[in-house]
Amino acid sequence: MTAKQMKLEESGIVTEKAARDDGKRPAEDTEEKKEAEEQHTEKKAKTEAGSKTTAPEVDADAKEPLSESQPKNVVEEGRIYFFYRPRVGLQEAHNLSDIQRFFIVMAPTSRKAPMRLAAVGKKQLPNTGGRFWACIQGLSDKIDDLMGGLGPKENQTKTQGVRRTEAARAAGEGVYTIAVEGTDAHLIYELEIPKEPQDLQNELNIGKTGNYSLQMKNPEKSSPPNAGLSDEQKVDYPKELMKTFEGTPGGYSWASPRDPALLDYMGAEFILIGANPDLSQVDKKVQEHLEKTAEQDLERHTGGGKEDDEMLAKLRAELHAEKNHVETAPAVEGNMK
C-alpha cells in the first residue's frame, strides 16, 4: 500500500464526503467524522466465513476480455461491480441509513489499466440530474488487493473500545463503457447480476442500465471549507494529463475524462451526473454494443444448471469471494443484509 493509499484509507475522508446537488461536497456528519479520526489505529480483523449459498465452480476472471473491438467513441470498456458496507457496529444493513459506504469497482478489459475502487459519497448512485462526488480509493492489477480492503475490520477507539465494521457486500455486477459524446464522457453500464433490479438494487439506485456524465476535478483548484481531500491526498497527475484542464486562465475546475487514464490515479476526484437511465439518448452503436457484450458475457457462464447458482458462481469467481470473505449472495438475491 502506498503512502497516499494509507492516508486515504486512514482519514476516512474519501468515502464519507458527498456532493450536494450543485456539485459541492458538505462536511461529514459528526459521528462519521469522529470515527474517521479514530481510524488511524485500525487493524484488520479475523476474517469470517463468506456467503453460505452453494454454487457450482466456474472459471471467470474480472479482467477477461469482453469483446475484440468497440465503437470508435468508446474509449474504455470493462466489468463493473457495486458494493456497500454496513455502518460501524451493525452486523447487517436493512436500509440506506444502515450503510456506511458505497463503492464501485471498475475492471477495464479493453486497455491496459489497473482495476479501480471508487467510493461514492452519497452511498448510492444518483438519479437523473443528481450530482454525486466520488474518489478513486484503490488501484491494483489484482482483484485480491481491492477486495482485501473491503473485508471486515476492527477499530480501537478512545471512547468506545473496539468497534467492528463488517465486510462489504456485493450489490450487483455488469459491463460498462466510457463513451465520448460530443464534449462529454459518459459512464454507461448494463446490469448482469441480478437479471433485474430487486429491493437491494432499488435502494441503491442501481438500475438495469445506467448513464452518468463524468466530470474530473482539477487537483490544483481548491475545495469548499471542510470538504474534499487534503493536499497530501489529492491526485498527482503528470503534466500531460493536466493539459486536460487547460483552456481558461488558471485552468478549468472540472473536465470530462475523454482520456480514461484520468481515472487511473489514486485520489482522482470526479462527479457522477445522472443522465437518462434508459439509454435512449446514448449513441445507438454504443447501446447495441453494450447489450451484445452483456449477453455474450452471461452466456459464457450460465450454461445448464440453476441460473441464480451460475450467476453466483460467476460473481464469486471474478471477485475471489471465498478467499477475500466478500458476501456475494445479496447481489443475486436482491436482499440487503
- Based on secondary structure, the structural category is alpha+beta
Please give the alpha-carbon distance between the first and last residues. Answer: 30 Å
The largest sheet, given as strand count, sense and whether it forms a barrel, is: 8 strands, antiparallel, barrel
Q: Specify the overall morphology.
A: globular
Strand numbers in spatial order across the main sheet: 2-3-4-5-12-10-9-8
Order of helices and strands: HHHEEEEEHEEEEHEHEEHHHH
Mean pLDDT: 83
The proportion of strand residues reads 25-35%
| Percent helix range | 10-25%
Number of helices: 10
**Tally of domains:** 1
- Compute the CA-based radius of gyration: 19 Å
pLDDT below 50 for ≥5 consecutive residues: which ranges? 10-56
Give a count of the beta strands, DSSP E runs of length 2 or more: 12
Explained architecture:
There is one protein chain. The chain has 337 residues and is an alpha+beta fold. The chain has one domain. Helix content is 23%, strand content 27%. It is built from ten helices and twelve strands. A hairpin with a 6-residue loop joins strand 3 and strand 4.
List the helices and strands and how they pair.
Layout: H1 3-11, H2 13-16, H3 30-38, E1 43-44, E2 74-86, E3 99-108, E4 115-120, E5 131-140, H4 143-148, E6 153-157, E7 161-165, E8 169-181, E9 184-193, H5 199-203, E10 209-217, H6 239-242, E11 254-255, E12 269-274, H7 284-301, H8 307-319, H9 321-324, H10 329-333
Antiparallel strand pairs: 1-6, 2-3, 2-8, 3-4, 4-5, 5-12, 6-7, 8-9, 9-10, 10-11, 10-12
